[in-house]
Amino acid sequence: MRIAIGQLGHETNTFSIVKTTVDSFRLWEWERGADVLKKHEGVKDFLGGMIDRGRELEIEIAPTFSAWANPSGLITSETYEAGKQELLSAITEAGPVDAICLFLHGAGVAEGVDDLEGDLLTGLRKQVGYEIPVVVVLDLHGNITETMVREADVLLGNIEYPHTDSYDRGMEAITLAADIAKGTLQPEMTITKLPLLIPTTTSYHSPVKELNALCQEWEQHPDVIDCTLFHGFPYADIPDAGVSIITTTNNNKDLARKVSQEVAQKVWEEREKFFPPLPSASEGIALASARQEFPIVINEASDNPGAGTPGDGTYLLREMIKANIENSCFGFIYDPEVVEIAHKAGVGAQIDIELGGKTDSLHGEPIKISAYVKCLTDGQFIQSSPMWQGSKVNLGKSTRIQAGNVDIIVCSVVSQTFDEQVFLLHGIDVHKSRIVALKSSHHFRAAFTPIAKEIITVDSPGLGSANLSLFQHKKVARPIYPFDSVSLQPLVPQA
């Protein structure tokens, strides 16, 4: 058996002013053919799981094209067309295959294309027809559309957030594709969409923890292949943004519909729990400084580059510098200009800088400080987090500067912080730090939960804010909670 694999992934924050171009992808990944295998072999991500499972089952894996960019603003039309054509042509050039497995994020938006994944799958079907099984893995933040459901045989998604199960879902995709190709599986898939937008919410806590357990209970049914709660991505202003549940069964459409509706009903009943109050940056610092145990981790979710924010927001960092708490560190802020100044000045220099706040005015003004250059690095390391472990990370030229008692890591590539490796690269042992601040919503939890005595999430103005009322949604289908009062009829008939 021979299965083609590929990837075209982007989580698009349509409120960002930073357009996504081919260069945005090339900075992270734009590979073809055998280079796709080189990029993902030994990595605990979606394609890494596909590769390893294929070899376990003695399936020939045909790599096609793989592109991924850090979340940012709208993908330019030229960029999307280039990526689409690269993927489709690479699948053609791969030759005859028994199935196709892809990773597509689910929240991609290009200029003029609100449903990027649906458009891509429609183009794929025009090319290969409907006889070849197409199994697609999506991020749980996918805004799922009817077109995506219609054009794919199976849609899988992360269950966990942080996405520590990406590798497992990649393996599952290959297994299901092989079963469909052999004729031992006849997938029937249904979607139930809710008029509900939610901020990013970890699966480590309620209510997602219990909702995932309900999905997994249904998966014990012999005919239920998969049941996934897709959180949706609220920072993509498109008609289909929002929460959905997809259930796949083996040739049992009615059961698939029943399961999706039952889970959706429970999600709707729990909707208010997705909106807990969060402290401001100054309140978070005060809470952390009152603790005697360490380290205390403070995450600035409102400027999480993993949601398409600029990564140079200054609200939390400004409060840290003001508090000047001993043995505190911030890892990291995006500012290539400051990095260049530090590298030119050299280790041991004192530099006068304006740090951060250069992309827009929403995430705070630049911080004017005099800082000591402690070290300079190339920003390269291997990710050790349980999420995407083994990934080669390159944050470009970087530096560790010191402002009073605060150690600040500054990098020249935008990304969220996944684990302690960026700190170690710059000589900081987070285990011995009193306060560790970083930019991320929840992915950092995979590595930092075992380390932190407490995790404090702070919310400030930003493109990743949990306060969804800050965003001017114009395209999203209305009415929708929490913007509107929505009266939803019971999805499951009452006994």
Spatial ordering of strands, largest sheet: 12-13-16-17-11-18-10-19
Strand content: 15-25%
Estimate the mean pLDDT confidence: 97
Poorly predicted runs: none
Question: Count of helical segments?
Answer: 14
Topology, number of strands = 19
Roughly how many Å apart are the termini?
Answer: 48 Å
Q: What structural category do the secondary elements indicate?
A: alpha/beta
Portion of residues in helices? 25-40%
Task: Write structural notes for this entry.
- The protein is of the alpha/beta class.
- The chain folds into two domains: 2-274, no CATH class; 281-465, no CATH class.
- The protein has 14 helices and 19 strands.
- The protein has helices at residues 22-28, 34-40, 46-56, 77-93, 116-128, 146-151, 166-182, 208-218, 253-269, 281-289, 315-323, 336-345, 421-425, 445-448; strands at residues 2-9, 29-32, 60-68, 99-104, 134-138, 154-157, 187-193, 224-230, 244-250, 296-300, 328-334, 350-355, 367-377, 380-382, 392-394, 398-403, 406-411, 435-438, 454-458.
- The strands form four sheets. The protein has an eight-stranded mixed sheet with strand order 12-13-16-17-11-18-10-19. The protein has a six-stranded mixed sheet with strand order 2-3-1-4-5-6, with helices on both faces. It has a three-stranded antiparallel sheet with strand order 7-9-8.
- The relative contact order is 0.13.
- The model has no long low-confidence stretch (mean pLDDT 97).
